[in-house]
Amino acid sequence: MRRFFTLEPAQIVVLGFAAAILNGTALLMLPAANEASGGASFKVALFTATSAICVTGHVIVDTPTYWSPFGHFLIMALIQIGGFGIMTAASVIFLIAGRRLGLRGRLIAQQETQASDLSSLRSLLVGIALFIFSAELIVATILAGRLWWSYDESPGDAAWHGVFHSVSAFNNAGFSLYPGNLISFASDWWISGFIGLAIIVGGLGFPVWLDLKNRWRTPAAWRLHTKLTLSVTAVLLVVGAIAFAALEWTNEKTLGGLDAPGRILSAMFMSITPRTAGFNSIDIAAMRDESWLVTDMLMFVGGGSASTAGGIKVATFAVLFLIVWGEMRGGSTAEAFGRRIPVNSLRQSLSVTFLAINAVVLSTLALLMLTPFSLSQCLYETISAFSTVGLSTGITPHLGTAGQMILVALMYLGRVGPLTLAVALAARERQRRYEFPEERPLVG
Questions:
Q1: What is the rounded CA–CA span in Å between residue 100 and residue 91?
Q2: By the 8 A CB rule, do 95 and 106 touch?
Q3: How far apart are CA 103 and CA 119, in angstroms?
Q4: How far is the C-alpha of 209 from the C-alpha of 215, rounded, in Å?
Q5: What is the Cα–Cα distance from 365 to 162, expressed in whole angstroms?
Q6: How many CB atoms lie within 10 A of CB 159?
Q7: pLDDT value of position 422
Q8: What is the distance between the alpha carbons of residues 106 and 6, in angstroms, rounded to a whole number?
């Protein structure tokens, strides 16, 4: 315990998520969590707990039928804990209990929320909690009303399904209590529309919403991070929707089987969900290879920093683009919206992307060696797991124990973050008191 409290904040975040996964595994192995006699196996419980805590949505068993109502409640609770952040949740609990949040606790929560000002962290954590539960309550109420009024579900079932899918959507998890996920709601603008909206809201990130709250009347005063996140997100959503519509419009197994409004809605939804929610309103396995590749790209980018989404994050993608754009223009710096991006942000973006690419490539190679599935299928699975998306071409239950454990490792790595994990393993950054002479290598 003494060693635990002397760890760096990044290390505590990594260990905290690991502890939550192990506890969730133990709870899901209880006989009461399973519809069948006896508890779930360790492999099934570990995979499901990791997927829930890491807000991914990957499954190797059928969620509606395999797990009992108690198991469904446990999954929802794990999703909420994972989305909110283990250490952030603990900090809020301390605040509610009236205890003072010490410096180490603030540093831990700062690691989760990416807050830049420790002095304002107390109000920030409370604001995060209120924002999350308020957004989830609004979406849950709308979904429950729609399910009760239009689908003849009992008030109790409609309320429970509304709450579960609201939590799953806002936290970008993708777990569903309906067979086929959301395919039966592909043309329902209320269900798919508000679930998609919850995904976007949860995937933008807390710093963006805090900035919008404080400066909503003066967009010019928004922070660079907010401007980059909103602009890149909008571009990716529009481009993704157009790409899916163009590629799948005539595919009778996906969009082609719907009417025109349903095709438009499903194309929009399938552009939102890789950002990284994991819900699907069309059959992923029936999509064309070109659509899989578009989804791969959207999943790899992911959502906003310090959000419930995964991937390398849209701000990281934006910085990489600005680096290339600056080089093409002959500049020495990356700039956007009249601001210059510091060198350490450039290094961090490159580091995150490099680690992410290597994790995906090595894991894809391992799946190709261990399973009979194609490169497109294996690549889709690994990007989906690393980016904590949860979309699948249908091969996840058939990967075997070794392949599924690779996805478990990817989900964990994708949730805690490649850079956070690297920092945790390195223990602490060492300050070098000297520099070597500079010499430029040949590039290109």
A1: 10
A2: no
A3: 10
A4: 10
A5: 39
A6: 18
A7: 53
A8: 14
Quick one: pLDDT at residue 96?
46
Q: What's the pLDDT score for residue 435?
A: 79
pLDDT single digits (tens) 163-218: 999 999 999 999 999 998 999 999 999 999 999 999 999 988 877 888 888 888 88
Distances (CA, A) of 335 to 207, 228, 233, 235, 318: 21, 11, 18, 18, 11
Short-list 291, 376, 332, 290, CA closest to 282? 291
**pLDDT value at position 264?**
96
Residues (pLDDT < 50) of the chain are 4, 90, 92-101, 425-429
Q: What is the pTM of this model?
A: 0.89
Pairing label, strands 335-336, 339-340? antiparallel
Tokens of residue 220, six digits: 């010019």
CA gap 70, 30 in Å, rounded: 10
Closest C-alpha to 54, from 349, 310, 397, 297: 310
